[in-house]
Design brief:
There is one protein chain. With about 220 residues, the chain is an alpha/beta fold. About 35% of the residues lie in helices and about 25% in strands. It has a five-stranded parallel beta sheet with strand order 4-9-3-10-11, sandwiched between helices. It has a four-stranded mixed beta sheet with strand order 6-5-8-7. A hairpin with a 6-residue loop joins strand 7 and strand 8. The longest helix is centred in the C-terminal third of the chain and has 15 residues, at about 175-190. It is globular, with a radius of gyration of 17 Å. Bound molecules: adenosine-5'-triphosphate (ATP) and ligand LQESDW3C. Belongs to the guanylate kinase family. Keywords: ATP-binding, Cytoplasm, Kinase, Nucleotide-binding, Transferase.
């Protein structure tokens, strides 16, 4: 019977084929780590849940810090929340082949992308690397047969609650809120492309659910 090794709690464990993970993880240089893709509409609570997941889930997790051309929000730190690049630098990095995927998200001229270096560094250290990316970016990763990510779609509950969360966050003006809600309606239609769907009604429950699901890939 084929065995696949994955990294949990810093040690190697095996799972039988026939369980959830049937294909070896994508990175041929490190067969014990894998990608986790998290998407969901802007304002659903992805960042809030992930911040807590990283603190509270006892698995070797690492966030991939994306690059973006959008300006930093107050309190956001370059290299921690995002790698903030100007458009010329972003383009240069596209041409250099530095991105695993990149997209213009929300149609307002701002680009977001996953740097290959973020992924390879995490995988090299035996970590599950988490990509918090939009649906278009996620579909590109799903199509690339080198990756076999564990994927989660985070739902806000309903669209009214999503709008409430976006407005209460207070980080976007009206034009941007409208663009994000429009994109959200489109993105919701793709939730069944993900292995797992999480209804983020309670941050506590979402964190616990995601951690438990990830652990199932270890046992
Ligand atoms: N389960 C929840 N219940 C109520 N409010 C929540 C919940 N989860 C997150 N929030 C709040 O909703 C707002 C949006 O959350 P967050 O910034 O994490 O969303 P996001 O999905 O990461 O958005 P974006 O894609 O724009 O980065 C924040 O003010 C956050 O505190
Ligand atoms: N395709 C990608 N999408 C990304 C990446 N990093 C973030 N995102 C998505 O952008 C939105 C907006 O984020 P915000 O910080 O401006 O509120 C968010 O919903 C992410 O899903 C990326 O590297 N690639």
């Amino acid at each position: 019977m084929t065995q696949t090794e994955i990294m949990c709690h810093g040690e190697r464990q095996s799972i039988e084929s026939g369980k959830r993970q049937q294909r070896p993880p994508g990175n041929p240089t490190d067969p014990v780590a894998r990608l986790v893709v998290i998407s969901g509409p802007s304002g659903a609570g992805k960042s809030t849940v992930l911040r807590r997941l990283l603190r509270e889930c006892d698995l070797p997790l690492a966030m991939s810090v994306s690059a973006t051309t959008r300006p930093p929000r107050p309190g956001e730190v370059n290299g921690v929340d995002y790698h903030f690049l100007d458009r010329d630098e972003f383009r240069r990095r596209i041409d250099a082949g530095d991105f695993l995927e990149w997209k213009e998200v929300f149609g307002l001229g701002h680009y977001y992308g996953t740097l290959r270096s973020e992924v390879t560094t995490g995988l090299k250290h035996g970590r599950w690397v988490i990509l918090e990316i939009d649906v278009q970016g996620a579909l590109a990763v799903f199509q690339d047969s080198r990756w076999d990510p564990v994927s989660f779609f985070i739902h806000p509950g309903d669209m009214n609650e999503l709008e409430r969360r976006l407005r209460s966050r207070g980080t976007e003006d009206e034009t941007k809120i409208v663009a994000r809600l429009k994109t959200a309606a489109r993105e919701m239609k793709f939730s069944d492309h993900y292995r797992h769907e999480i209804i983020n009604e309670s941050v506590d429950h979402s964190v616990q659910e995601i951690c438990e699901i990830l652990k199932e890939y270890c046992s």
